[in-house]
Amino acid sequence: MSNQLDNPGRRDVMRKAGAMAFAATGVVAAVTPAVAATSSAAGALGARLQGVQHFGLTVQNMDRAFEFYTQVLGGTEIMRDGDFQGDVIHNTLLLTEELDARQRHVNPRAVGIPDLRSGAQRLDVRFVQFDNVVIELLQYRDSNQPQGKGDSFAPPTEKTSPAFPRSMHICFYIRDDVDFNQFVHDLEAESAKRGMTQVKANRVVHAASEQERLNAPLNTNTNRITSGKSDGWTLIYAKGPEGEQLEFVQVRGQAKRVFDGAKDARRQLVAAQ
């Protein structure tokens, strides 16, 4: 059966799910009536937004990614849907990519553009809730592949360096009372137990081999900044099970005061509009 977003019932379900997801994020304070009125009127674009609703990640293996973000990192499933196909959803997601391919006289399929229009490929999605953000997992698969465990439509990109323009990452906030170095160790260990050997975190020292990376002292698992404007910011970059770029941070001291002050200023600005 064709799953298209022009179905009124589907639109209502997705709208309600999105509203629940955003309400749970706590990213921005509740929208006041004044802001609600501004959001529907002409004016500054920023005044019409309610903040970030979710981050999306296209995955190679839906079940593996879902297991990592729920069972390893502790997110909670909001909803799942799938088998999206048809002209409306194809145009909604892929029209400009398809036009660009045709202008370059390239077969859209050759550059990773699935054919949702005819239903040859399908899109499945799952939403995962964390304390202050929602992550959407997406998988494009051939129509003869089962949902979840089926193979992806296209291979993953080989260019995984975060230095590439257009690269994105997901950043997770670690509680202040958590031993960050131990967290990184346990993240890799728990993932390895599940066969997710792709989950690897960087070290703050040079390693000439994978074994040297693994053998690095525990206190090299994180970079703790103790001076300058970022004083109090602790971080490490890691790869997730899909090769996606992840970041884990703790924010204390000077950095925390800066971010908390910016959040308070933002709330006052929104309330005044």
TrEMBL record:
<protein>
    <submittedName>
        <fullName>Lactoylglutathione lyase</fullName>
    </submittedName>
</protein>
<dbReference type="Pfam" id="PF00903">
    <property type="entry name" value="Glyoxalase"/>
</dbReference>
<dbReference type="GO" id="GO:0016829">
    <property type="term" value="F:lyase activity"/>
</dbReference>
<feature type="signal peptide">
    <location>
        <begin position="1"/>
        <end position="36"/>
    </location>
</feature>
<dbReference type="InterPro" id="IPR006311">
    <property type="entry name" value="TAT_signal"/>
</dbReference>
<keyword id="KW-0732">Signal</keyword>
<feature type="domain" description="Glyoxalase/fosfomycin resistance/dioxygenase">
    <location>
        <begin position="52"/>
        <end position="146"/>
    </location>
</feature>
<dbReference type="InterPro" id="IPR004360">
    <property type="entry name" value="Glyas_Fos-R_dOase_dom"/>
</dbReference>
<dbReference type="InterPro" id="IPR029068">
    <property type="entry name" value="Glyas_Bleomycin-R_OHBP_Dase"/>
</dbReference>
<keyword id="KW-0456">Lyase</keyword>
